[in-house]
């Protein structure tokens, strides 16, 4: 008799068991360096949708070490959980159900696979709904650490959370009812997401169109560094010198992560702080007023201009600064240029070649930028500011719709796992 069966005090009643008693857990894939190699489709956190589904439209197909793959090949019914990553407004703990019959699939090292021990006692589809409910209900929020600017899930604590388990037939009924209800919500959510993406995509395409007619030179970042157009380009990789949790103070020198990037600016009210003495130890990743800050790790893409009266700002491992020479490149222009469709396509191509969301500093220096003369840069900035205000109003509207849909979804899940779903 399995642990699930033994845990039941009532022959046909609900019971609760720690997740670790119901499942086995498997760490994500590293590509490895030792042959032989095999081709695998690797599910990454970029393939997780807000609805708890897998999106295969932009999946990575990689050559991976056969020995690594043999231990990390996904099975139908596995649940993939995001353990590291997240974003400024996105906790880790998202889950998707692997429900694919054919093909060689694995999962990235930022994720883990959760596999039900006995599907005659616990339906993986039901468990996926429970874990999805934990996420939307905020239960993973207290189980997170952000010591290096990346959100990390306390997976041991997560495994100790208790799963509400009704009889198998009731599990299947709950899944069927939720699937029917979520079908309509998913369609509404998809429409709102598409509208939001259209608004954001229109802005990025507008910038790209402005750049195409700007007559600007197309240069790699390395070429810009060599020409003195960019004076310095460094990230917040502090090696063994990362500040410890107890070293942060209530006020002092700002310590900035990707979560501080808001609407093209750095919101220092969201920063942590270090004492002057502790901040003086850092020799790299020290930003200043006018630097352009790019999020390159876990949350990739957000970019902002740093405007501050502080003499310096310390960067976390998740961000990089670009320090333009003002007689050649205006910070606000570079910030908008890096929000263009063309630049986004470049860093997304870099991420497709890896099992994690990251654009390392060496890869950034190979990316190209379109840099016109200063008068044209000023014109692009003015046009972008005007359009950005209109785009923000649309973003607020569609984001509000998505929030309402998510609240309805959370309410249904809460009823389902309290035994109140009819």
Automatic annotation (TrEMBL):
> Residue limits of the Type I restriction modification DNA specificity domain?
14-184
* Keywords linked to the UniProt accession: DNA-binding, Hydrolase, Restriction system
Protein family (similarity comment): Belongs to the type-I restriction system S methylase family.
Q: Which Gene3D superfamilies match?
A: DNA methylase specificity domains
Q: EC? A: 3.1.21.3
Q: Which residues form the signal peptide?
A: none
Q: Which Pfam families match?
A: Methylase_S (PF01420)
One GO biological process term:
DNA restriction-modification system
MF terms in GO: DNA binding; type I site-specific deoxyribonuclease activity
SUPFAM superfamilies assigned? DNA methylase specificity domain
**Protein's name in the database:** Type I restriction enzyme S subunit
Organism whose genome encodes this protein: Sphingomonas yantingensis
Establish whether keyword DNA-binding is in the entry: yes
Protein origin, superkingdom: Bacteria
């Amino acid at each position: 008799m399995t642990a699930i069966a033994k845990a039941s005090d009532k022959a046909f009643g609900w019971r609760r068991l720690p997740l670790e008693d119901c499942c086995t857990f498997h760490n994500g894939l590293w590509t490895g360096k030792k042959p032989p190699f095999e081709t695998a489709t690797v599910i990454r956190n970029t393939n997780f949708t807000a609805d708890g589904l897998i999106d295969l439209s932009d999946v990575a197909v990689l050559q991976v070490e056969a020995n690594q793959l043999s231990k990390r090949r996904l099975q139908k019914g596995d649940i993939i959980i995001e353990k590291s990553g997240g974003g400024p407004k996105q906790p880790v703990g998202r889950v998707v159900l692997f429900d694919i019959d054919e093909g060689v699939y694995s999962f990235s090292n930022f994720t883990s696979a959760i596999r039900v021990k006995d599907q005659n006692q616990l339906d993986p589809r039901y468990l996926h709904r429970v874990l999805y409910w934990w996420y939307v209900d905020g239960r993973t929020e207290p189980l997170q650490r952000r010591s290096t600017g990346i959100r990390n899930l306390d997976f041991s604590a997560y495994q100790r959370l208790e799963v509400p388990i009704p009889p198998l037939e009731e599990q299947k009924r709950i899944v069927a009812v939720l699937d029917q209800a979520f079908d309509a919500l998913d369609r509404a959510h998809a429409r709102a997401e598409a509208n939001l993406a259209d608004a954001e995509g229109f802005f990025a395409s507008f910038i790209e169109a402005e750049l195409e007619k700007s007559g600007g030179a197309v240069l790699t970042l390395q070429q810009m560094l060599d020409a003195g157009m960019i004076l310095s380009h460094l990230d917040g990789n502090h090696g063994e010198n990362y500040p410890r949790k107890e070293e942060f103070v209530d006020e002092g020198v700002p310590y900035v992560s990707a979560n501080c990037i808001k609407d093209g600016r750095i919101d220092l009210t969201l920063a942590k702080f270090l004492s002057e003495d502790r901040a003086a130890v850092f020799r790299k990743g020290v930003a200043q007023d006018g630097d352009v800050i790019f999020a390159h790790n876990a949350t990739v893409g957000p970019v902002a201009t740093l405007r501050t009266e502080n003499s310096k700002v310390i960067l976390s491992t998740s961000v990089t600064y670009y320090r333009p020479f003002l007689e050649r490149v205006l910070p606000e222009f570079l910030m908008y240029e890096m929000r263009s469709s063309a630049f986004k396509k470049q860093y997304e191509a870099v991420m497709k070649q890896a099992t994690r969301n990251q654009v390392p500093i060496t890869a950034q220096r190979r990316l190209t930028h379109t840099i016109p003369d200063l008068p044209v840069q000023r014109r692009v900035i003015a046009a972008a500011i005007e359009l950005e205000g209109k785009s923000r109003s649309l973003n607020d509207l569609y984001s509000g719709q998505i929030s309402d849909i998510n609240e309805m979804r959370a309410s249904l899940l809460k009823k389902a796992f309290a035994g109140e779903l009819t």
